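USER:
Make up one protein:

ASSISTANT:
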Amino acid sequence: MNLTWDPVLLLLQMLPFLVTLVALHFILFRPMLAYLDARDEAIEGVKREAKEMQDKVEADRTEWERRITAARRDAGLHRARLHDEAETQRNRLLATSRKESDVRVGQAISEIVAARESARSGIRGFAAQLATEIAHRVLGRPTAEA
């Protein structure tokens, strides 16, 4: 076998191959590479948007947590102030009630003492009268009253 290089035959065989490669480049490879580049750019754009959204959500969450903390603190202060006001009002009402009850107890004691003295004087008079009457009956005659 004799191998010789025939440049015309080689050119005739390479020409359809090169035409096919050029045609594939324009028909298939260039549009496919453009599509893949566009897809990569779209993916990167979506990733950037997602990162921006995530950063915004995180910033909003931090702001809401700060607001909630401030609202809880304000509510606690308000509750403490209301509790102090209620405690002050309760103490004032207790003091007023104690004063009123002390006055009423004093009045009741005065009334009881007056009633006791009235009852004592009434009982003394009744006891003297009863003693005189018992003496009249026992002796059967009137006695001298002192």
About this structure: Helices lie at 7-139. DSSP finds one helix and no strands in the chain. The chain has a mean pLDDT of 91. Residues 7-139 form the longest helix (133 residues).
